What does this fold into?
Amino acid sequence: MIAGFLRTLGAMAIDGVWRLGVVARFFGLLLRYSGQSFLRLHLTIREIYFGGVLSFLIIAVSGLFVGMVLGLQGYETLQRFGSGDALGVLVALSLVRELGPVVAGLLFASRAGSAITAEIGLMKTTEQLKAMDMMAVNPIARVVAPRFWGGVISMPLLAAIFSMMGVLGGWLIGVVLIGVDGGAFWSQMQSAVDFRHDVLNGVIKSVVFGVAVSLIAVFEGYDCTPTAEGVSRAITRTVVSSALTILALDFILTSFMFRGMS
Amino acid sequence: MSRTVLDLWVGVFVLVGIGALFFLALRVGNLAGVDLSETYTVRAQFDNIGGLKVRAPVKSAGVVVGRVDSISFDTNSYRAEVSMSIASRYEFPRDTIGLILTSGLLGEQYIGLDPGGDFDMLQGGDRLQITQSAVVLENLIGQFLFDRSGTPAD
It folds into this structure.
């Protein structure tokens, strides 16, 4: 009974480590063949279109609404302490440091990551990847690397757009609707938000999330069981593990970046 | 979709993304504010720095001229040692007074520089000779109560 439990636990641990090793080797191969795929840059540009440009609307609208909610909720709370003017600081810091990269990452994983997994998984199921291999076309250079780099390039841009729309949403609610002084809103924001410490760290976060989400998406697609059920499971795994990875990485990055902050 | 249309949209997207980054840097952040690329360091000792934090602004006449770099405790004099970097284009006389002030009633604390009349200017690594500590609210209230108890009741 206990031996059986321990055996299951051991098998799970070995499986996990083994899978992590496969991901690492896959990542190594991907980086190795990236140069080859950059020679045909339009493949990557095409993926930026499907991953980034088509995610623009959902990111921009979500950013606007998150900023508007922050404006309403933040004002409610700040006003109790008589510091409604600090609304800009609250909105900008929470967006630039945390919500921008994290929420944009989650949206990107479910909007673009799942699509990448489905596409690569279906290519594998219909043996297109094998056919490419037969024709001496490297599927990692031709299919995987452009999608990966497309995601890595799109993600920081989407996070920046999300933060910008959020700040504008907060401004719309705070200044235009509620009537916080516009000058205080922007000037307090500018004096409290540091470029290197807040904005740049947020960008670094979004780049890391972009690498993580894109890698998970292409790997799950490439690794899926080549059946209809296998593809659907791979897509589910992409969304779930992307979300968990983003949240875990966010905690780790935050504890390094903002530790001991005043 | 044809290649040129696709390229166009990706170009627009990248431009909007970079524009958003610039917006965050210039409008939300304070990159366009005081230029702290070239600075010189000035040190000062205070009896009590109150709630002063690293990266707090250094202001003169209300204008941000620098930032606080580090705060430490000097075991020889038992005072707080504050090091601040000031933008090179702002020069101050040697006998400038450093004060710890509070923006608003309960706002953040910053260092105010009150320029003196010396003809020599502060150089990098110099020390402010005259400083004034932060006003600690508890001491102020204590003093006020002490004064009140001294006055005879009407």
